């Protein structure tokens, strides 16, 4: 399934499955996702944040190096989200309800400007980091940043493990 340059195969570690391998690829992704979810909730961390890290890692990643660069973009986006939460908190007494739109305007300019960086240049991964912060609906703090980052890293590890297992268990094309 593709939507523009986005493909569902990329979410399952970017391993294109031949029809006879469809179920193997699916089963590997499902087992790894279940294990990652168990590990995340056992800690306890939010499973939804783990999945955002998984998707952020996988966005357009064809190699481990691409995935790590995407994870860095995700984590920087998460940090930017926490910083934006602090800016909104500081500006709200002065600007009222317009504080959030002004802060988001600055975020979008910054994130889209970062797409020219050499490796950590995936705006979608940055935005997933921002989404992770705002979806938590919690006040910005270092502990929130650490919690969401840890969940995202578990998701990224799950995505890489899925990619690795799929590539090793499936015969070379």
From TrEMBL:
The chain crosses the membrane at residues 24-55, 67-88, 145-165. This is DUF1097 domain-containing protein. InterPro entries: DUF1097. It holds the Pfam family DUF1097. It comes from the Bacteria. The lineage of its organism: Bacteria, Pseudomonadati, Pseudomonadota, Alphaproteobacteria, Rhodospirillales. Keywords: Membrane, Transmembrane, Transmembrane helix.
């Amino acid at each position: 399934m593709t939507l523009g340059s986005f493909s569902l195969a990329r979410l399952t570690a970017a391993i294109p499955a031949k029809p006879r391998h469809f179920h193997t690829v699916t089963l590997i992704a499902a087992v790894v996702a279940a294990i990652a979810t168990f590990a995340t909730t056992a800690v306890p961390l939010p499973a939804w944040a783990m999945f955002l890290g998984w998707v952020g890692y996988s966005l357009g990643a064809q190699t481990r190096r691409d995935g790590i660069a995407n994870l860095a973009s995700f984590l920087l986006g998460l940090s930017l989200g926490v910083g934006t939460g602090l800016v909104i908190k500081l500006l709200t007494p002065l600007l009222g309800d317009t504080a959030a739109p002004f802060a988001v305007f600055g975020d979008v300019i910054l994130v889209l400007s970062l797409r020219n960086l050499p490796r950590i240049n995936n705006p979608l991964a940055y935005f997933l980091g921002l989404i992770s912060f705002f979806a938590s609906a919690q006040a910005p703090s270092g502990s929130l940043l650490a919690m969401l980052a840890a969940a995202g890293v578990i998701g990224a590890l799950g995505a890489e493990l899925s990619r690795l297992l799929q590539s090793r268990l499936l015969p070379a094309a």
